[in-house]
Model the fold of this input.
Amino acid sequence: MVGPTPHPTETQRAARMMRDARCLVALTGAGISTLSGIPDFRSAGSGLWEDCEAMTAASLTSFRHNPERFFEWVRPLAARMLQARPNAAHRALAALEHAGRLRAVITQNVDGLHLQAGSQEVIELHGSFRQATCTGCFAVVPTEQLLEHWLASGGMPRCAQCGCVVKPNVILFGEQLPHAAMQRACEWVQACDLFLVVGSSLEVNPAASLPYQARGSGAELIIVNRQPTYLDCRAALVFHQEAAEVLAALADEVLCDRAPA
Ligand SMILES: [Zn+2]
Done:
C-alpha cells in the first residue's frame, strides 16, 4: 500500500504526462537505491567518499597497481550490494515497462537492482557489480558466488579458470564509460518525448547531461530527487521527495487507468 502523497495534484499531472507520452525514458541515480541500503557512494557526506584515500582506491590506475587496496575499500559496499533487494521505486519502473508505459531505464547505478526488479531495457552507464572480468583470461563471470566467497575469506576474488584477480565490471575513476551503453542511452534520449529523472542530483557527467539533451530535443522533464538539481527550472514537474514514495504513487496512478484519456 502506498501512503498519502503530499502533492496529489502533481502526482496526477505527472501520471497524465506519462500516460500521454509516446516514448517515456527514465534516468536513475544513487537516490533510487538508498532505500535498498546502498549508500550514495559518490556523494560527499555518505562516508565512503569522504577521504581522498577512497577516491584513489577506486581509480583505474590504483586498481592496476594495488588491487588489494581497491578490494579493501570496496568490501563494505560489496557486502551491501549483495544483500540489497529492489525497493518500491525499482518495482514501479519495472511495472511501467511491462505495461508498455516506459521504454528504457538508463542508470548510473552499478547495483543491478533494476534487472532484479524485472526491468528489461536497462542501460548501465557505470557498469555492474553483478559481473566481473578476469584480468588474466578476460572471462566474464557472474560475481555473486565469487564475491560471497571473497567476503567470507578475504584476500582478493580470483578467476576459477586461471587464478588471476577479477575486476568487477564497474567503471572506476579514470576509466571510460562503455561506448555501446552510452550510444544506446543517446538513442533513447533522441527518441523520447518525456524524460523522467529519479534519484540523481545530476552532478556526474555524462549522465547528467542526458536530460539536458532530451529537453533540448523537445522532450518534457519530470524530476524526482530529494535535492534540487540544475535542471529543476526547466522541468515540467519536480518532486523533492523520496523516490520510492513518488514512483509507487505514480505507477499506481498511471496503471489504474481511472482517469479519462
Ligand atoms: Zn581467468
